[in-house]
Design a protein that fits this description.
Length: about 140
């Protein structure tokens, strides 16, 4: 769809991976399985998600070719949306884990800071408490 609006070689090269001016051939380095599915959609008007195809990869291909996922057949659309939701949940869990690890790191740093403060007080001011008196 985007190709028809291109008027210069540079505009074509922003969309295509390669273009041969002499033979007027376009080259797209895309997922071949998804391309066959999209080509079938353009020919027959039916868009289906193959079982062996990654839903995120297919979503990228749909975005690249400017095809709405609303065009998916109802059976494939349900499976596609379910997979996309699963990926979103996994990403959210992963982000929570990363955030939790950062929080654990902060807690460990704060424990270390508290220990260093107590150690500094003990060495610099031995009268500050029993550990300082023992150290002195």
């Amino acid at each position: 769809g985007q190709l028809r609006f291109c008027q210069t070689f540079d505009e074509i090269m922003k969309i295509c991976d390669d273009y041969d001016v002499t033979s007027n051939e376009y080259f797209f380095d895309r997922n071949p399985g998804a391309f066959r599915t999209i080509l079938t959609f353009l020919r027959a008007g039916k868009l289906r998600l193959l079982r062996e195809m990654c839903a995120l990869s297919f979503q990228d291909e749909l975005l690249y070719w400017g095809i709405e996922d609303d065009n998916l057949e109802w059976c494939c659309r349900r499976r596609y949306l379910q997979k996309i939701e699963e990926f979103a949940e996994m990403n959210a869990i992963e982000e929570d884990l990363v955030e939790g690890e950062k929080l654990v790191d902060l807690v460990e740093v704060s424990k270390c800071n508290r220990f260093m403060t107590q150690l500094r007080d003990m060495v610099e001011n031995p009268q500050s408490g029993l550990p300082g008196k023992i150290f002195a």
